[in-house]
Write a structure and sequence with these properties.
mainly alpha
Length: about 90
C-alpha cells in the first residue's frame, strides 16, 4: 500500500556508519568543516586537490562494531572522469 513500509532495526555496523556520516555533514553545516565536530575515532576528511587526490571512503563493515571508513588515493581513471565532468560545468550551468 502506498505510504506504508516495514522498518528493520539497524545492525551495529550501519548504526556506526550513520553516526559517522551524520557527524561529518552536521559538522560541515555548523562550522564549514566536516572535521570540527566529527566522530573522534574517524579519519580526517582532507581537502581534495590535483596534487593530493585523496578521498574519504565511508562504509559500514559487516561484523564490525565501529565504522570502517578510510582515506585512499583516488584512482587515475576516477580523476580523469572527474576532470571531464568538471570541464562541462560551465556548459551545464548555462
Amino acid at each position: 500500500m502506498n505510504g506504508t513500509t516495514t522498518f528493520e532495526p539497524q545492525s551495529e555496523p550501519y548504526r556506526a556508519f550513520a553516526a559517522e556520516l551524520i557527524a561529518y555533514w552536521t559538522s560541515f553545516a555548523r562550522s564549514g568543516s566536516p572535521n570540527t565536530f566529527k566522530v573522534k575515532s574517524t579519519p580526517e576528511w582532507g581537502n581534495y586537490s590535483p596534487s593530493n587526490p585523496s578521498r574519504l571512503v565511508l562504509q559500514a563493515v559487516n561484523g564490525a562494531t565501529s565504522q570502517g571508513s578510510f582515506v585512499e588515493k583516488e584512482a587515475t581513471e576516477d580523476t580523469r572522469r572527474c576532470r571531464i565532468m568538471a570541464g562541462r560545468v560551465k556548459t551545464m550551468q548555462d
